[in-house]
Write a structure and sequence with these properties.
Blueprint: E1 11-16, H1 19-30, E2 34-35, E3 43-45, E4 54-59, E5 72-75, H2 79-88, E6 92-100, E7 103-109, E8 115-120
Length: 136
């Protein structure tokens, strides 16, 4: 059957308690500006690529429970420096690392505990660092 429609990836929405705080964290990490919120109480970052998907942060009252079922994978050219930055800005290093031929993956969380992965170049050493948030 021939398709008569198209689908475009527009955004990823993350449930959270403090949309503004998470938009600032993710905006700084991805080097993009915080954009106009799509709805009252929400927050949004601009896309990292022209006409690409944005990150939305939707306020929800309930806390996060368990492992995030979907997560973002971010590529970096310097795994250790990226892990250090995340720790200094309220994120957490879970201590989980996966070494693949494609690269070394460090499992992180944002300030509200949402998991994401940072993928360093192939051959990157396992990152060092605390598995807790920085107090500085």
């Amino acid at each position: 059957m021939k398709r008569t429609f198209s689908v475009t990836w527009a955004e990823v929405t993350i449930d959270c308690h403090d949309p503004s705080q998470l938009a600032e964290f993710w905006g700084q990490l991805l080097c993009v500006e915080v954009a106009e919120p799509p709805l009252p109480g929400w927050a949004r970052t601009q896309s990292t690529v022209r006409d690409g998907p944005v990150l939305n942060f939707q306020p929800v009252p309930e806390p996060k429970h368990g492992k995030t079922r979907a997560h973002l994978d971010l590529w970096t050219d310097d795994l250790q420096s990226t892990v250090d930055w995340i720790l200094q800005h309220g994120g957490t290093y879970t201590g989980q690392v996966h070494v693949y031929t494609e690269g070394t993956v460090a499992v992180m969380t944002d300030p509200e505990g949402n998991e994401f992965c940072v993928v360093g170049p192939a051959g990157s050493p396992r990152p060092s660092g605390s598995t807790s948030r920085s107090d500085s």
